[in-house]
């Protein structure tokens, strides 16, 4: 089943009540890594109708936990109680339901089960988990710059689809996207540091 179909069924059942992340674990089974990761990262890619303080840190923590389990080659996901108790208000569920097709269908049209020598290889799955952890850490950084959530967010979404579809090509693409995202964040850090040095030099000269 496609990620959009799995999430659509779940979200449709929770349009009028809060949806706990733990509910995903119960229905996802062995497909849980892809489904839960996709569900967690999607709110980072759309404007939310209600503010959720500390949301990005909790979401990042959830993805880190899932990535760690992939890196350890676990086959079924487990979420700590604190993360499993995270609930999405009905307004968020409706917003996700509305944006599912726009966010997922373009990627899903390109993805399919293939290159099983990579997608089923424990080493490549471990590497995917490590990349997922790294992208989640980048996504959680409180940086006041545009697109700092989108770049790692879409990379994690690609990884979620790769796991769910057993798509070795998408796995390889996600490694490349992780490298590009790292370069993007390094460029931002370098630019911010240069501005800070210039500001300090200007302040000293002004004195």
TrEMBL record:
Keyword Membrane carried by entry: yes
Transmembrane stretches, start-end: 52-72, 127-148, 168-196
Matching InterPro entries: ExoD
Keywords: Membrane, Transmembrane, Transmembrane helix
Phosphoprotein listed as a keyword: no
Coiled-coil features, chain-numbered ranges: none
Record-given protein name: Exopolysaccharide biosynthesis protein
Organism: Oscillatoriales cyanobacterium SpSt-418
């Amino acid at each position: 089943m496609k990620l959009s179909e799995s999430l659509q069924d779940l979200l449709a059942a929770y349009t009028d009540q809060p949806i706990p992340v733990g509910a995903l674990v119960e229905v996802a089974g062995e497909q849980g890594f892809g489904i839960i990761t996709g569900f967690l990262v999607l709110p980072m890619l759309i404007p939310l109708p209600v503010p959720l303080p500390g949301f990005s840190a909790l979401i990042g923590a959830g993805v880190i936990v899932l990535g760690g389990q992939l890196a350890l080659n676990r086959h079924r996901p487990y979420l700590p109680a604190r993360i499993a108790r995270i609930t999405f208000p009905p307004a968020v569920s409706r917003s996700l339901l509305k944006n599912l097709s726009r966010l997922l269908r373009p990627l899903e049209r390109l993805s399919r089960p293939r290159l099983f020598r990579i997608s089923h290889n424990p080493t490549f799955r471990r590497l995917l988990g490590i990349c997922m952890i790294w992208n989640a850490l980048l996504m959680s950084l409180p940086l006041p710059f545009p697109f700092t959530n989108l770049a790692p967010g879409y990379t994690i979404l690609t990884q979620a689809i790769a796991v769910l579809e057993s798509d070795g090509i998408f796995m390889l693409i996600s490694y490349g996207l992780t490298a590009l995202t790292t370069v993007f964040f390094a460029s931002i850090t370098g630019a911010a540091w240069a501005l800070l040095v210039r500001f300090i030099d200007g302040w000293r000269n002004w004195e």
